[in-house]
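The following block was generated as part of the benchmark described in Methods. Ligand: pyridoxal-5'-phosphate.
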Amino acid sequence: MELYNLKHPSQKVSFTEAVQLGLGKDRGLFFPTRIPVLDNIDELLALSFVERSKKVLGAWLASELGQAKVDELVEKAFNFDLPLVAVDEKRACLELFHGPTLAFKDFGARFMAQCVNAFAQDSRLTILTATSGDTGAAVADAFYGLDKVNVVVLYPKGKISLLQEKMFTTLGKNIHTVAVESDFDACQHLVKQAFEDADVRDGLHLNSANSINISRLLAQICYYFEAVAQSKQRHSSDPVIAVPSGNFGNLTAGLFAKAMGLPVKRFIAATNANDTVPRYLENGLWQPNPTQATMSNAMDVSEPSNWPRVEAICEKLGWPLTDLVGIRLNEAQTSAALKQMHDIGYISEPHAAIAAHALTMNLKDDEVGIFLGTAHPAKFKDVVDRELGLNLPLPPELKVVEQKAILSAELVPEFGSLKAHLFKLLG
Ligand SMILES: *Cc1c(COP(=O)(O)O)cnc(C)c1O
């Protein structure tokens, strides 16, 4: 697989290099030179999720890695269910939250972790990352126990919920966590300093595991095929798919799936009040506002990092950008959407509820829609309990971590302390 840097098209890399680099020169995103097209879609849709995913990812990666390696990566990464659950006659939720950290980020993080571990040479790598919550949990869990990679996660002490903290600080082994006595920005700044420090960068073989890594997006293509496969067992028409969007990685993967030949009628980009994209689709002006805090906080993004990839796909395929539907919901509408779903017997959470309601607003009479369930309702227990007057039980994954002890080190927000700590741990 060959990729090029969207900012500097002359920079070309292999998949292996793109996974290791994350970003290209000037922080440009890597984009595939060629998008493979699959012509036997009906046969593919008849396969199981894992068998089909081997073929979908093989179309991109087998020439570089060999099909046997692709099969192995897929088997290790995708080991949980993703049911398509009907919520009414026209709408169904693809529940992507049955992985180990109860969020769809498990798909991308687990596949990326397997790739990074497989591509690591003899020396051990260190993944250094800062988190304000969910990504840290998915990344830590995905890399847990892998033999060639150490993970160090920085997070702001006291600024995330205890349950969130326990999801990634109680693992041990190759997962090291650091509670920084400051805020998320300070954590990100420390990570940046570490990557700029040659001793740390080269001595510990630093690698980032951020969400723009191409391996994550490829993994996410697979669940769109599963969505359509399950939908076609119930409805003959091609589904409309609504994607709760923040950084737009999820939607990018959906567009790749469609570009590969997957029959999807259209996509809806559903956002909260951070609506840079819906406004852009309406008036053609890219005008990010300051980020607003909302109930659907994983989508509180006003400058979505994957947007250039969305545009690149549409341009390559000759799809007008206006084929994409942008829909935004404010907080009152999000709350109403959650309640409406509860009334028809489905407990959701704010992110998926936004996408579900976007379908209601946009579906025509003869159309069927799928919305992506990006997180387990219990991950947003505070909001869901408050809005619906419930006391949601914790699922087993969360109950188990609730009992465990936090293993984090605590540090002041100074690079010198972090550097000393890293060398003590890993040097
Ligand atoms: C990350 C996240 C999103 C947004 O996904 P993007 O790929 O960034 O658009 C939506 N919902 C939940 C629960 C998330 O964690």
